[in-house]
Amino acid sequence: MELTSSSSTEGAAATPGSSGRMTVINDEWQTALESWKQIAPLFKGYENKDIWMPFYYDGECAKHLKSLGFKKVHHKKQDFFNKLSDVKFVEKIDLIWDNPPYTGASLKERVLRALVKTSKPFSMLLPSSILHSKLLQDITDLDQVQCIIPRRVFVRKTQQNSVPFKYLVW
């Protein structure tokens, strides 16, 4: 099922003011603070630049980045696809950095195509299988792709303990 901003689903791809879910099924996870700590040094040059975290979930990830010294983090419960049409907003963004929902290939493809179209640098936490996908080859110049492979990534549901995942890459 392809999710669109005009669908009845909730969250970042739905209407603002919704419950914060981008997908119909409960497959959204918050990237835990310890995972942001692992890669924050690689993004040190963005500490005073505008970072957009478009996938809201529960809002905690912006707090994580701010606690690590990133001062200008934009993270609101907004429609991701509609926000991309806000030219002034997108122009001021220096980096798009987040953990998108993984629901189905069509949503992942739609998100990645939209990110590539911005021409902005972005770092998304994705399953490592994306590196070998035809999708990635079709939508971007692979010479422009860099990959961060953490030992493990910790994620969690709201009000739950973090759990490790191995096969995710930035």
Task: Give an overview in words.
There is one protein chain. It is built from six helices and nine strands. It is of the alpha/beta class. The strands form three sheets. Strands 3-2-4-5 form a four-stranded parallel beta sheet, with helices on one face. Strands 1-7-8 form a three-stranded antiparallel beta sheet. It starts with 29 loop residues before the first strand and ends with a strand.
Which H/E pattern describes the elements? EHEHEHHEHEEHEEE
Number of helices: 6
Tell me the helix content: 25-40%
Strand count: 9
Strand content: 15-25%
C-alpha termini separation: 25 Å
Derived structural class = alpha/beta
Largest sheet: 4 strands, parallel
Mean pLDDT: 82
Outline, from the CA principal axes?
globular
Contiguous low-pLDDT stretches (5 residues minimum) are 1-21
Gyration radius over CA:
15 Å
If strands are numbered along the chain, what order do they take across the biggest sheet? 3-2-4-5
Features:
170 residues, alpha/beta
Write the layout of secondary structure elements.
Elements: E1 30-31, H1 33-39, E2 50-52, H2 60-67, E3 72-74, H3 80-83, H4 87-92, E4 95-98, H5 104-118, E5 122-124, E6 126-127, H6 134-139, E7 153-156, E8 163-165, E9 168-169
Parallel strand pairs: 2-3, 2-4, 4-5
Antiparallel strand pairs: 1-7, 6-9, 7-8
